[in-house]
Design goal:
The protein is 48% helix and 14% strand. By secondary structure, it is an alpha/beta fold. It folds into 4 domains: 116 residues, Phosphohistidine domain (Glucose Oxidase, domain 1, 3-Layer(bba) Sandwich); 111 residues, Orthogonal Bundle (Enzyme I, Chain A, domain 2); 136 residues, Phosphoenolpyruvate-binding domains (TIM Barrel), CATH 3.20.20.60; 145 residues, Alpha-Beta Barrel (TIM Barrel). The strands form 2 sheets. Strands 1-8-7-3-4-5-6-2 form an 8-stranded mixed beta sheet. It has an 8-stranded parallel beta sheet with strand order 15-14-13-12-11-10-9-16. The protein starts with a strand and ends with a helix. The chain binds phosphoenolpyruvate and magnesium ion.
């Protein structure tokens, strides 16, 4: 019988294949009373299950860190390892077993329910979804306790015979589960739980496989080997489609694949407009291993290395040597192409527990996005900043390293930063450590004040990079992490467009290169608009580079220039959208 289910579209594309059901542990475990003398054995059983899962996560971390795996994966596996190591999960159930003389499974689920109960009251959707991370970790331990498999299982003979893709159907999937996908020829996956910001959804996007989450009843309704279609753009799962629908989707799938292979051919094409304007398409990266993804699409350099990811999810700060190694490996990996390394942009939604919360460990920041973020934090913690600057300078002799400073507002911040950089240079000279004396320092333009009065920045800095994510947030007063106002986050707001265009034009007049490294740079629908504003340097997630290149090679920069000049004079959103259609 054919039927379809609707959920949340989290990763685009079409997948057609046979259902591969993933068994899921029920959290409804029975309570059993343990005899007094058996309590130590029960505790030992619990401990063994914990250490088994710890070892499994450690080996999954190894797999996830291998080249080619999305950078987020290893981080998410680490989050699960951290949750497991927390005494609230690793110690408290042991006490329950001892005090209540109950079985390990029951003690663990009791403790989990207590923990996740608090999450349900949280308003923030992202944090609320972290509840699921705890549940996933507990399920893994329960599987060990009850002797259930943790692997996804072998492909069925039928699927092998047809040589078709498998579609994973699960109640929920942890990021650790997704690591096994590459060995099983997985076409896509669907889950009953999960939202668009769940870690599994993020991994699906970086693996570029179609996925739909939040389907509620897929796992109980679908049977192993059912023929399935995932429409990752519309968030639909079609079970046992009739031949007409199947044919239609096969056609759409091959059209999409054709599009993709055409894009691949663009890899070696020169990024230039029809009228001969060269355009640099660079990559944004979070961790050194992302360089391989950037090279796969022949990125013109690294336009933004978000170094704060080196500081996250760990108890100790990375040392100068560790940072140096990370920066050097990117500099060497890009073999002479520009590598723009941004200094620590910590704060707001990017937190690192290894960093102290200024003003006391318990200080609640009233407005984190307006608080001690990025360069403000670094200037308040000069030792931390000096360590990073020294590491950056040391790495600068291994390639073309440029230093990018985030969230600048005041001239004094630039001057203090340049002063500290001079101090770091003097220290290294004294220690006879080599570095690039001419290392370029640039600034992020992501605060409206900086965009409005950009002259002093152009005078003191060698290049600028516009962070449109924050520029939009601060111009429109829209918290970029708050789903309730996300519909108001509008890159096409005339105020935003004028700030961007004004910065690009001022840069051109002063002959200081200006790039964009916010999400706008990677949106192919905006490429012509930005080219028309005069932008010639774009930096984006590597997966976007070829799509944006496709737009570049079809563009006439001069024609776009006059069309965009007209668009920028408009105040009415409707009119702007109309003119956008004609670019
Ligand atoms: C931006 O704000 O646009 C940007 C690129 O920085 P981040 O997203 O890391 O804040
Ligand atoms: Mg920013």
């Amino acid at each position: 019988m054919t039927f379809s289910l609707h959920g949340q579209a989290v990763s685009q594309g079409i997948a057609i294949g046979r259902a591969h059901l993933v068994s899921h542990t029920t959290l409804e475990v029975a309570h059993q009373t343990i005899r007094e003398r058996d309590v130590p054995m029960e505790v030992a059983r619990f401990d063994l299950a914990l250490s088994t899962v710890q070892a499994e996560l450690a080996s999954l971390h190894e797999e996830a860190s291998a080249a080619g795996a999305p950078a987020e994966l290893a981080v998410f596996v680490d989050i699960h390892a951290m949750i497991l190591a927390d005494p609230l999960l690793s110690e408290a159930p042991r006490q329950l077993i001892e005090e209540r003389r109950c079985n390990a499974e029951w003690a663990l689920v009791q403790q989990m329910e207590q923990l996740v109960g608090h999450f349900d009251e949280i308003d923030d959707a992202y944090l609320r979804e972290r509840r699921q991370d705890i549940v996933q970790v507990v399920e893994r331990v329960l599987k060990v306790l009850t002797g259930q498999p943790r692997k996804l299982g072998r492909r069925s003979k039928a699927a092998d015979k047809e040589d078709c893709d498998l579609i994973i159907v699960a109640h929920d999937l942890s990021p650790a589960d997704t690591i096994q996908f590459k060995n099983l020829k997985i076409g896509g996956f669907v889950t009953d739980l999960g939202g668009s910001t769940s870690h599994t959804a993020i991994v699906a996007r970086s693996l570029a496989i179609p996925a739909v989450v939040g389907l509620h009843h897929a796992r109980p309704l679908v049977r192993d080997n059912d023929l399935l279609i995932i429409d990752g753009s519309r968030g639909v799962l079609i079970v046992e489609p009739d031949p007409r629908v199947l044919e239609e989707y096969r056609l759409r799938k091959s059209e999409l694949e054709l599009e993709r292979s055409k894009l691949k051919r663009l890899k070696t094409a020169k990024a230039a407009t029809l009228d001969g304007e060269d355009v640099a398409l660079q990559a944004n990266i979070e961790l050194p291993q992302d360089v391989s993804q950037a090279k796969e699409v022949d990125a013109a350099g690294i336009g933004l290395f978000r170094t704060e990811y080196l500081f996250m999810n760990r108890d100790e700060l990375p040392t100068e040597d560790e940072q140096f190694e990370a920066y050097r490996s990117v500099a060497k990996g890009m073999a002479g192409k520009p590598v723009t390394i941004r200094t620590l942009d910590i704060g707001a939604d990017k937190q690192a527990r290894a960093l102290k919360n200024l003003g006391g460990a318990e200080r609640q920041e009233p407005n984190p996005a307006l608080g001690l973020r990025a360069i403000r934090y670094c200037l308040a913690e000069p030792q931390l900043f000096m360590t990073q600057l020294r590491a950056l300078l040391r790495a600068s002799q291994f390639g073309y390293v440029r230093i990018l400073v985030p969230m600048l507002t005041h001239v004094a911040e630039i001057e203090q930063t340049l002063g500290l950089l001079e101090m770091a240079k003097a220290q290294l000279r004294e220690e006879r450590v080599k570095f690039d004396e001419g290392v370029e320092v640039g600034g992020m333009i992501e605060i409206p004040a900086a965009a409005l009065v950009v002259g002093p920045f152009l005078k003191r800095l060698r290049f600028l990079s516009i962070g449109t994510n924050d520029l939009i947030q601060y111009t429109l007063a829209i918290d970029r992490t708050d789903e309730a106002v996300s519909h108001l986050f509008d890159p096409l707001h005339p105020a935003v467009l004028r700030l961007i265009a004004g910065t690009i034009q001022a840069g051109a007049r002063a002959e200081v290169p200006v790039a964009i490294c916010g999400e706008m740079a990677g949106d192919p629908k905006l490429t012509h608009l930005l080219l028309g504003m005069g932008l010639r340097q774009f930096s984006m997630h590597p997966t976007q580079i070829l799509e944006v290149k496709q737009q570049v090679v079809m563009a006439d920069a001069e024609q776009l220039g006059s069309k965009v000049a007209r668009l920028l004079r408009q105040d009415e959103p409707e009119r702007i959208r109309e003119l956008m259609e004609r670019l």
